[in-house]
């Protein structure tokens, strides 16, 4: 894999006081003049988070694979992705790239190789900046290991030799080690401050809460990869730190929204009390980050005021009214909150449901008065408290604690005014019903594919080529993406995983 050497660090734009880009511009700064002040460390951390946002706002092919939809536009490339079309996914022009994650890790390496040069920086501020670096590092490896399994672990900004991949278990341990260090170094969200001692309110910055959520997911994924009960216990422990009141002094306060309506109106907007970690998308980013939600293509009328009701038929994908009704039992308040006027004949003509989970759009306008959609005026929520309840429920049922799993599942059902488990329509398999609850609660938030993989439901919950995969295919890496061809450039140590190598012509 090719390494990127940064001789010039950052050109930063001024933005709002809460923004990740809130710093005076610095032009033409080189290594010789950098890493001398706290503001220099702060600038590199801001660049880390800017790169992380670029990496994590891209909707991944696996997120498309896992979308719970009934209709996909005829001939759409998304059909090929969702059906595990190996020829399409191996084509160089179609491959998912890991470059953005390694670009971010390059900045992290640069920081850790140079931060000690800074003079007269208070030790607690050094810990804060190092904690941000560890958090960003852990997030990158978390995404890499879920998407590609075996992946490269970088060796610092001065390393210019070839790289081989490390096993997924080692990548996970690297991410866990970084996340644990982040948890130790970082304050609670309420204690985040910049170099001017001003509160940071963006929920993209690492803090104890976001590190705990990341650790819960890392250990849950490691339990899937390695098969260890101890990892399930760790995942349960870290999820509990966000759920249980006794940990609030340590981790911070996160609370569930009152109801699904509040989830849509506030949690899916930005900076709610339920949100633990989210990507900051601000006014200046509206044109750059227009498509960053897995369900973006489903959002139309009435949210998008420039579209008519029947335009929904031209979307890349959609869910039928019947599909929504099969997903959400009668009385489940998420049915009416997540979708617009399902029972109104005026909104039934297309046969498709109108997504209403994300409600804030931003528009551009010409001098002549022409208006167009610029993008959604929301942050992308990555981790929220409801996710932690249901992840803990999943871990508990796998640990043979059905009572604890049922209790967590029912907290989320009770919030949604849905019937408590077990209820009519449930399968009776508690693990599967928890999976289905995550599908409902976290609908279109990007979790479903990874939930499918963790629980081993690829044959029944995915489509096309996934239905034909054998256990051996999965062991050989079929549920991961192929390593992109760019990673092989001038690097004879790089190898493709076994499944995808067998499909290459």
Question: Care to describe what's here?
Answer:
This protein has 505 residues and is mainly alpha-helical. The chain has a domain at 284-378. The protein has helices at residues 38-57, 61-66, 77-82, 86-90, 99-114, 123-148, 168-185, 208-226, 229-243, 248-251, 260-267, 321-327, 333-338, 385-398, 402-415, 430-441, 448-455, 458-461, 471-475, 498-503; strands at residues 71-72, 275-279, 317-318, 361-365, 371-376, 380-384. The strands form 3 sheets. A two-stranded antiparallel ribbon has the order 1-3. The chain is globular. The model is unreliable at 1-29 (pLDDT under 50).
Primary descriptors:
single chain, 505 residues, mainly alpha, two-stranded antiparallel sheet, 43% helix, SusD_RagB_dom, membrane, SusD-like_N
Short précis:
The chain has 505 residues and is mainly alpha-helical.
List the helices and strands and how they pair.
Layout: H1 38-57, H2 61-66, E1 71-72, H3 77-82, H4 86-90, H5 99-114, H6 123-148, H7 168-185, H8 208-226, H9 229-243, H10 248-251, H11 260-267, E2 275-279, E3 317-318, H12 321-327, H13 333-338, E4 361-365, E5 371-376, E6 380-384, H14 385-398, H15 402-415, H16 430-441, H17 448-455, H18 458-461, H19 471-475, H20 498-503
Antiparallel strand pairs: 1-3, 2-6, 4-5
Helix pairs in contact: 1-5, 1-6, 5-6, 6-7, 6-8, 7-8, 8-9, 8-14, 9-14, 14-15, 14-16, 15-16, 16-17
């Amino acid at each position: 894999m090719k390494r990127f050497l940064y001789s010039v660090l950052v050109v930063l734009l001024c933005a709002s006081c809460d923004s990740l880009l809130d710093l005076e511009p610095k032009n033409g700064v080189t290594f010789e003049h950098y890493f001398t002040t706290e503001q220099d460390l702060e600038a590199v951390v801001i660049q880390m988070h800017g790169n992380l946002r670029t990496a994590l706002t891209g909707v991944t092919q696996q997120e498309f694979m896992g979308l719970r939809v009934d209709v996909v536009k005829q001939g759409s490339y998304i059909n090929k992705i969702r059906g595990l079309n190996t020829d399409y996914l191996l084509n160089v022009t179609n491959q998912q790239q890991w470059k953005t994650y390694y670009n971010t890790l390059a900045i992290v390496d640069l920081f850790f190789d140079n931060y000690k040069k800074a003079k007269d920086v208070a030790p607690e501020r050094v810990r804060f900046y190092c904690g941000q670096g560890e958090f960003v590092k852990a997030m990158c490896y978390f995404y890499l290991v879920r998407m590609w399994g075996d992946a490269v672990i970088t060796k610092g900004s001065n390393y210019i030799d070839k790289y081989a991949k490390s096993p997924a278990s080692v990548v996970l341990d690297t991410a866990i080690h970084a996340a644990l260090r982040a948890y130790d170094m970082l304050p609670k969200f309420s204690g985040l401050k910049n170099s001017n001692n001003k509160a940071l309110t963006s929920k993209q910055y690492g803090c104890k809460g976001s590190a705990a959520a990341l650790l819960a997911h890392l250990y849950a994924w490691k339990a899937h990869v390695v098969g260890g009960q101890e990892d399930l216990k760790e995942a349960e422990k870290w999820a509990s730190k966000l759920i249980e009141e006794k940990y609030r002094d340590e981790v911070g306060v996160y609370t569930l929204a009152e109801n699904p309506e509040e989830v849509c109106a506030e949690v899916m907007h930005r900076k709610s009390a339920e949100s633990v970690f989210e990507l900051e998308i601000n006014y200046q980013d509206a044109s750059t980050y227009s498509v960053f939600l897995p369900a973006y293509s489903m959002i139309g009328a009435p949210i998008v005021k420039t579209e008519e009701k029947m335009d929904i038929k031209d979307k890349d994908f959609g869910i039928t009214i019947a599909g929504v009704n099969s997903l959400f039992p009668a009385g489940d308040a998420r049915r009416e909150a997540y979708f617009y006027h399902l029972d109104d004949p005026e909104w039934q003509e297309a046969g498709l449901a109108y997504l209403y989970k994300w409600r804030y759009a931003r528009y551009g306008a010409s001098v002549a008065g022409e208006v167009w959609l610029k993008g959604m005026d929301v942050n992308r929520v990555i981790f929220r408290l409801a996710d932690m309840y249901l992840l803990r429920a999943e871990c508990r049922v796998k640990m043979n604690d059905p009572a604890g799993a049922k209790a967590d599942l029912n907290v989320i059902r009770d919030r949604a005014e849905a019937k408590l488990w077990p209820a009519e329509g449930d399968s009776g398999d508690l693990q599967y019903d928890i999976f289905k609850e995550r599908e409902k609660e976290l609908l279109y938030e990007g979790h479903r594919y990874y939930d499918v993989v963790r629980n081993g439901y690829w044959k029944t919950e995915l489509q096309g080529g996934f239905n034909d995969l054998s256990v051996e295919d999965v062991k050989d890496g079929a549920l991961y993406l192929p390593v992109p061809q760019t990673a092989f450039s001038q690097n004879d140590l790089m190898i493709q995983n076994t499944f995808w190598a067998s499909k290459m012509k």
